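Customer ticket, subject: "Can you confirm the structure for carbonic anhydrase?"

Message body: Hello, I'm evaluating your service for our small team and ran a test protein. I'd like someone to confirm that this is what the system normally returns, since I don't have a reference to compare against.
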Amino acid sequence: MSILEEILLHNKVFVEEKEYERYQTSKFPEKRLVILSCMDTRLVELLPQAMNLRNGDVKIVKNAGAIVSHPFGSIMRSILVAVYELNANEVCVVGHHECGMSSINSDVILKKIVERGVAEEKIDTLRYSGINLHKWFRGFNDVEESVRHSVEMVRNHPLLPLDIHVHGLVIDSSTGKLEVVVNGYGTKEKTPSL
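Agent reply: Thanks for trying us out. I re-ran your input and got the following:
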């Protein structure tokens, strides 16, 4: 049985037995918080439990490394939608120790891409078009610094109102222990970094 077939079989029972009822909530985050977190599998249930979050409490945006790499990319757009359309008034960037993005090597990824059948010509076309794949696949060396950088990208965004608090945390992916990197309650002024 394929993964999709397993999912659909489970879903049929889930709906028939009305298991969805315990998850019903509105689209507005009860705690008025949007979280940017890493997509790491260890955080799927650990992060909400470690932060005392239930279904409906927050909006969660996930990507590789909890990185805001571009001020006008999809991550920042999601955060702004959460603020303006879903009434979030705080943002929390949560990185984690032992993140795969701390050891990512763009040369290795590009080699794997070719090994999986993507033609070298396609990669060359992207390079000639000005796409720096090494930069695009780059991770980070220091999770705290990466969280600080993402907090600054969010906090200094020209479309983010000044009254939005932007925090930065790092979670231990084994124990769930949270460390504060940036306490957003103390910062109201934007710094010229964009």
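A couple of notes from the result: The beta strands are 33-38, 58-63, 90-96, 165-171, 178-182. The chain has one domain: 3-104+139-186. Feel free to reply with more questions.
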